[in-house]
Amino acid sequence: MSNEKTLKEDYAATSIETLESVTDNSIVQQPHQLSRGLKARHIQMIALGGTIGTGLFMASGKAIANGGPGGALVGYGIVGILVFCVMMSLGEMAAFIPVSGSFGHFAARFADPSLGFCVSVIYWCNWAVGVAVELTGVALIMEFWVQTAFSFNGVEIVGITAGESENPHKTVPSAVKQVFWRIILFYIFSMLIIGLIIPYNDPTLLDGASDISVSPFTTVFQKAGAKSAADIMNAIILITMISAGNSGVYSSSRTLMGLAESGFAPKIFTRVNRWGVPIYAVLASCLVGCLAFLTSLFGSGVVFNWLTRLTSLAGLITWVIISVTHIRFRQGYLSQGRSLADLPYVAPLFPICDIFVIVIGLIVIFGQGYASFMGDINAGNVIGSYIGLILAVVLYAGHKIIARPSLVKNHEMDFETGTLKIEKEVFDTNGDGELNPDKKEWPLWKRVGSKVLSIIA
Question: What distance in Å separates the CA atoms of residue 310 and residue 272, rounded to the nearest whole number?
């Protein structure tokens, strides 16, 4: 590529090469055709769209009812720390190797091909079915009532967007930092305020005796007598749920495209239209989501309940695998005599953060279904509680038995394919591919205001 091109043009025009698994273990280079047009703000909003929606607005009341305001705040705080650790680990890998498929590709490349296959399929199922969960929530919110489980699931979308980022070396680290602070603001601060206003034993909160719960955000306005404001809040919740569904379609389609490029799905899903959108992968993911939604309309809803439980565990399993992969990534990188100074972004507190995610994640994964063993044990409830884990084990073991791949050794790890070779000081960028204005000349109030806006907007 010509050296005369600007950094921005280089990123927009470059095709990222990835490794494609084939049956004879040979390596084939295949270029991506995704358009590199995402800036930092786009990446942040896509990740936030998948994170802030049903979980925050629709069932945060259940957490307050079950654990009290203090317990809910502590729980969200711990998960918030866990999420930030995952974001830092994924950010280090995605900024250095911005490819489609992201953590599924990284797991296969730096840890175990079977692990990469497992997390890719699990994550695709997570978001494909997640679209159905959002559709169900939309139908419920129309009746002013909502039902789902709280989750931070969605922040890892930042890794998937790296393959379409205009300047991934800058935008991914920026998105890692900004998304975290926005989640702290929207989740932790919101839970604090809600917990101070609504008692944990308020009858409008879900207490386990019914199947529905009102959004505590709407309840706040109702208690204040501002019915119009409550209606407006309800409309806002509806919009966020649609946005979360949109992020789900984006994530599932890109993950399916990555599976197809690795030979685990039909090649038709690698095709893109003239705008660089994997249209067939999008349509397939939407179709699966719609079919999953239909299971909630017929029968007793047992199948749909299993599917929604699958999405809950899939996020945790993905986070654990990302942390395992990051440990192997860093071990292999350093064992080959490479310097951390050459990485666009270096995750701090290695390996403490990764170990924290793995330990807490495994505790939650195995402990979340303890209620199914209380009293009379029902096989359906036990399977439903661990269906995500069961699927992950079947996928990993099945791929290991059929493909028989070996674990990736340190000296076998490829740290060249898919990296963008650029000069570090070509541009003074702000994370979106544009030149920075000289903010040092701004007055103090303007600099402070700009910093606050960069966090919340």
Answer: 29
- Distance (Å) of CA 44 to CA 33, 252, 428, 447: 22, 17, 20, 21
Beta bridge partners of 165: 38
Q: Which position has the token pair 């259940």?
A: 62
Q: Which tokens belong to 288?
A: 């699966």
Decide: helix, strand or coil at residue 167. coil
Closest CA to 152 of 110, 177, 182, 120: 182
Instruction: Look at residue 353 and tell me whether its pLDDT is greater than 80.
Output: yes
Q: Which DSSP string do the residues of 176-206 spell out, in sequence order?
A: HHHHHHHHIIIIIIHHHHHHHHS-TT-TTS-
Q: Given the structure tokens 């650029």, which residue do they identify?
A: 422
Structure tokens at 442: 């701004």
pLDDT tens digit string along 328-338?
999 999 999 99
* Residue where the block lists tokens 């919101």: 190
Query: Has residue 190 got a pLDDT over 70?
Result: yes
Residue 438, helix vs strand vs coil: coil
pLDDT at 24: 38
Cα distances (angstroms) measured from residue 130 to each of 153, 155, 247, 293, 445: 10, 14, 10, 9, 42
- Looking at mean pLDDT, say which of 5-19, 77-91, 249-263, 403-417 comes out highest: 403-417
CA 420 distance to own-chain centroid? 24
Which of these ranges, 108-122, 254-268, 422-436, has the smallest mean pLDDT? Answer: 422-436
DSSP 14-49: PPPEEEEE-TT--EEEEE------B-HHHHHHHHHH
Place of tokens 């799905």: 265
Domains annotated on the chain, with CATH: 36-246+300-426 (1.20.1740.10)
CA proximity to 36, closest of 155, 226, 170:
170
Query: How do residues 355-394 score in pLDDT, each as one tens digit?
Result: 999 999 899 888 877 777 777 777 777 887 888 899 999 9
